[in-house]
Write a structure and sequence with these properties.
single chain; 170 residues; alpha+beta; Nuclear Transport Factor 2, Chain: A; four-stranded antiparallel beta sheet; 6 helices; 41% helix; 24% strand
Length: 170
């Protein structure tokens, strides 16, 4: 129940930031766009909403992965996370309950899925249909590993396409 409240609160904060702060910080609001700019450019509000959707997708994904490891061990959550992968990434993760968490760990280039949580550390937009989300993967005993989740906009929604080691990671 507490996780649900935290997720709702985080979504509300992200929504507020998406329509009020992020467009200004990302330079998406222009004084007077030219006609040629306005025809081919995504509107700032539409782009901010898209970013919010990507962030919410990552929040859902990380929650599902957390539910897939002990003490919860919910394989259905791992299967839900699998369906949030892009068409190319989904082929790397088996839907077999005996292999799914191991396949996710291999996809993320980590020894195993983190037992102490996954946190979104930062967000970087690399285009209208690509985004990188910096993740902190927290482990008891061994600290934190950093990975970048690379998302792409595929078939009308944001999908997790790949993971790479963050420059801050060991």
């Amino acid at each position: 129940m507490g996780m649900l409240i935290s997720l709702i609160l985080a979504a509300a904060i992200i929504g507020i930031l998406a329509v009020s702060v992020l467009p200004k910080q990302l330079g998406l609001l222009k004084e007077k766009p030219s006609q040629s700019d306005s025809i081919s450019q995504v509107s700032p509000l539409g782009f901010a909403q898209s970013q919010t959707q990507a962030q919410l997708r990552m929040l859902q994904f990380t929650r599902y992965l957390q539910e897939a490891v002990p003490p919860i061990d919910n394989i259905e959550s791992a299967q839900r996370a699998r369906f949030m992968l892009s068409s190319s990434a989904i082929s790397e993760v088996s839907d077999d309950p005996r292999r799914i968490t191991r396949d996710f760990a291999r996809l993320m280039a980590v020894p195993d899925l983190p037992d102490q949580g996954i946190r979104i550390e930062d967000l970087a937009t690399t285009g209208e249909d690509h985004m990188t989300v910096a993740l902190g993967l927290y482990y008891s005993g061994s600290g934190v590993l950093y990975r970048n989740a690379n998302l792409l906009f595929e078939n009308g929604s944001w999908k997790i396409d790949s993971f790479s080691k963050s420059p801050d990671s060991n």
